[in-house]
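Case study 2.
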Amino acid sequence: MPKSSTLKSVESLSYEQAFAELEGIVAALENEQRSLDESMALYERGQALVKRCAKILDKAELKVKQLSGETLNDSEEAE
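Prediction:
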């Protein structure tokens, strides 16, 4: 993993970039011995990446619903 000073802002990442970085963090946490501080920093970055991916997916879902003519009220009633 790159040093935190060279990491891009989470908000500037595309879905693909955020997901790829998240996969790298998971692999690093599973396979490498790290100090508690390093592990916590990776975990925090991972949480931010998860939130970024979820936000992008939520926006995409909303756009698909809008394009297909489905309103938010229609989808809420179906649940």
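Residues 36-67 form the longest helix (32 residues).
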